[in-house]
What we know:
- Chain A is an alpha/beta fold.
- Chain A has 14 helices and 13 strands.
- In chain A, helix 10 links the parallel strand 8 and strand 9.
- In chain A, helix 5 packs parallel to helix 6.
- The model of chain A has no long low-confidence stretch (mean pLDDT 97).
- Strand 12 of chain A pairs antiparallel with strand 12 of chain B, so a sheet runs across the interface.
Amino acid sequence: MKIEAVDFFYLSLPEVLDIGDGSQDLLLVRLEAGDRLGWGECEASPLTSIASLVCPMSHSACKPVRASVLGQRLDDVTDISRISNLVRENSLDLLQADHTLSGIEIAMWDLLGRARDAPVYELLGYRRAYPKMPYASQLFGATAQETLQKARSVRDQGFAAAKFGWGPFGNGSVEQDADQVAAAREGLGEDAILLIDAGTVWREDVEAAGARLTVLQACATTWLEEPFYSGAHAAYRRLAAHSGAVKLAGGEGSHNSYMAKHMIDHAGISYVQIDAGRIGGIGSAKHVADYACARGVTYVNHTFTTHLALSASLQPYAGLEDHIICEYPVEPASLAVDVTREHLWPGQDGLIRLPEATGPGVTPDLEQATRYLLDVEIRVRGELLYSTPDLGDRV
Amino acid sequence: MKIEAVDFFYLSLPEVLDIGDGSQDLLLVRLEAGDRLGWGECEASPLTSIASLVCPMSHSACKPVRASVLGQRLDDVTDISRISNLVRENSLDLLQADHTLSGIEIAMWDLLGRARDAPVYELLGYRRAYPKMPYASQLFGATAQETLQKARSVRDQGFAAAKFGWGPFGNGSVEQDADQVAAAREGLGEDAILLIDAGTVWREDVEAAGARLTVLQACATTWLEEPFYSGAHAAYRRLAAHSGAVKLAGGEGSHNSYMAKHMIDHAGISYVQIDAGRIGGIGSAKHVADYACARGVTYVNHTFTTHLALSASLQPYAGLEDHIICEYPVEPASLAVDVTREHLWPGQDGLIRLPEATGPGVTPDLEQATRYLLDVEIRVRGELLYSTPDLGDRV
């Protein structure tokens, strides 16, 4: 089949709040090939990615992303990496291109999955998809008391693992942070897995992060996530050297597989967290999963938007039985839940299973998506380069 | 002073060709603070960077770049890094932000330089700016014969060093590449410095690059630049281990100082090439210069557009006397020459000197810039988020 159309749809809540909740808007991708459609999602600033899709060429290595996708043959798994390489080379100097490619790449797997009547994980070479244990991923409460309530609530919902992040954590005193972590542990109970996400708050200040290790260790925290900027490998390594039972996690900022591999090699992380909607798609994420496996590092998805993005982010390590934990947003904005027809709800046993369906197996609810769809227009020299396409009535 | 306006101007040739010439368009940045202006330039896809400047917020760590710049106090060098950090944190998940920040950061140095009546290199702590030896940076000819002519021409112009890159190099046979390199050497004569730029053409194929080492060594090539993708450190390292007198160069793809430092630490490069218009600006570039110095790696600018960008890229290592070589585009598009009032032409001795002026010391020619200025309009929900501002009559 031949890719004949690449369409982007910017969906958003009417009002976006200045909080760490990444599910307030999203960028839906639709590919068309013959009579088939494929859907994907970029974990990216929607307007910026739209601009990178349609921008005028700057030179031979700074072309709009669309130029390397439209008209390409897509008949096999190798075509997906071939087209991805084309994008990376033709848009080498277009920084946003990796985020933009990510949603397109996911949609290519959807197209190919539909053509082959196969789920993505099979196309990736996995024989089966193992169930994953979801950790309830959420923001810290504004106060320790609020965090305590949130922890109790997810425990009551049956989650055996939970992550708290962002919010006030790391910005106040060591004591305030200690209260927050202790509240999270108290609310979850002793036997649940507790994860803490610092959201790069300490930049590269190893001492600031180190000052929180005592409470993290006392509360049996499994991992401390993103204490530093993604690139601050030396800081990660120094902290990892004395973090004891508290392991480090990171990697969500990786926009190509090299960056994630460098973290595995040089940052002393024990968990590598990859968002298929950022790293260039499912194929790049799978490279990281293979690499992590070979080096004794546990692969984990990063996801904060829809269950289409969730499915896409689970596929790369679906066949890795021992890499069981998975990120699962439990307080997404209405948008992120409304806009897909299928959902990956936890089963009776509390575990998440990938759909036994073609592709990612999660498709948009067009009626709902239309409610959130924003009108966008981009003109250069008076020429209309982008205007929001029609979502139509086919999925 | 307080930053009261951030304006972007997309300049372009009427027709952009599908060649490796990065000077066919550019993104000019103007900051306004009180009665002062500051100018900078992003080495970036203009439309995509404009979108990242004005896009709606997605969440607390994915804000438009403008949000972290407008209204900020700028009274000291430390304010520049403070504002840059704000951008990086508030736009953590906006990939394009680093390219967008770069031009803004350069304009902040211009503002501060004007306020202090000091050149940037002084603000960076250098006592003086040493002259640099420009290498004539250009594309390979379509044929070896054409390359021979180009090499003779730059030699006749007085350049003691030249770089050839992109074009057909690396895509054809080993013999064709050998002819190209030999032609370049022949045209330059025996005593000139010859540099070769592969433009990432071999992705991570060490054998393909290795097959070209014989001719590169025979022709006394000083460096082989970007044989692989920026992130392919292992491939770089393997090639460096048997490249002999031909040293490896790379780093232009770095969009933060960490990436460049990782290349220094792990890719076996002997020359690190940094574009201040991409890496986050002059301050980030200076961090890399310091790091390179301490590790025996030679710092080199990367520049392919105007002399404003050239001056900005030279400032970070202006005070490093031994790091003498500098990239100097010799076949820029008319645009890149026309739009500045000052130029860094080689002196009688063939060397380049930074202007003894405030800031970068290169300012736009507004009349010329207006000729190349493109009308851009971006609307979301009917609201006009960006329309090309007036260039006015002040520099």
